[in-house]
């Protein structure tokens, strides 16, 4: 018995040692594991007003004077992928990716947002892109919505107005009908927490509305119902013929308890529920996390509201919502520490309503973006938490990436990818998490929202000073290409 215990301890020590020493996981990625790269329409396409495209909320905010964007940058031309998609596909082919994750610009397909008028030229662009991908053996993974809402829909209230649910479903129906023969992987939304909390709560993303703990909750309620209705539309009307798969992508950072105290461990769990659970819990289990329901109901009553600021689903809606996913997509970049507090902030807002404190220590390794602390071990913890919390779903890492100020010798990016992928591989090997794929953000440098072109995430450099927007492979592109060939993070892998 004693020797068995010693034996077990020996292994625990050896495995932990591997983590501490920064040794990379040496197990080959399984053959059916899919590697890809990701982009988003507004960040790469340009051609903002060409061939009948309508205005969207990002066109609108980037054209404001004064502009909220660093250097007054816009996505008017961006990487010019609208004209250069064949070059993009050639890069993808050279990298050797299994799939390409890109998003569709709603206002390129439906210029006013409504489906009374379809812009054939816009549709043709995506048909061409998908055809080019297929011709090169690359699977398209299409995000229906990556933040670029048609401006006319914002003008009638945007996501907090429930009218939008059916408008979104109308848009989705056009895409399934027109592209569904060739597209087999769909994501309804990219990071709805950013759309709602940053867009309608904290005025950090278009349409820059400040209504924390109110409009962001209404927005989310409608996004969730639009998501469910779209999943059901696909499931009931398209899946049989098209045989595809449809999920959603949520953004999260890993929230680590700042101490071993029960209070801090609970605080970190609460934070996960307020961030990921806000969306995942309704989709997996049919309703908002109970900690959100109880905190927000109590605080709303104290504030004098007759009803909770967190909207409620009807019993019918709960049943309808529950289980509306084939896989869960997740974008992970960073992590924070969390602690409990005895003095919750009384202001309205998502973070305040959680009644816990989160922060990123100054001495953590940082990428060029100040929010992007490099915390590779958060990857394994996150996907393992998702496995345990959501009944072992299929998980896809739909974004993960590293920013710098721009260099072709991007060793920092390579080191980041190595360590995060190693942590992911650990989760697959030791915790048996069902991870089906991974997309690096991003294929190429692009319009980084408020940061404009000042923060670079690409495997390929793009020359934004040249009208041709020349693309050049960085060192990380060659590294990723090698990874995709060997499916192995070290010199020699074991199968
Ligand atoms: C992703 O969001 C997006 O899907 C993608 O479009 C984007 O290009 C990529 O990240 C890189 O940023 O400045 O302190 O207010 C990742 C989640 C949430 C990370 C908002 C940055 C801003 C923090 N993002 N966050 S702060």
Automatic annotation (TrEMBL):
Q: Which InterPro entries match?
A: GH (IPR017853), GH_1_N_CS (IPR033132), Glyco_hydro_1 (IPR001360)
Q: What Gene3D superfamilies is this protein classified in?
A: Glycosidases (3.20.20.80)
Q: What Pfam families does this protein map onto?
A: Glyco_hydro_1
- Tell me one GO molecular function of this protein: beta-glucosidase activity
Oligomeric state and partners? Homodimer.
Q: Which family does it belong to?
A: Belongs to the glycosyl hydrolase 1 family.
What is the protein's name according to its record?
A: Putative glycosyl hydrolase
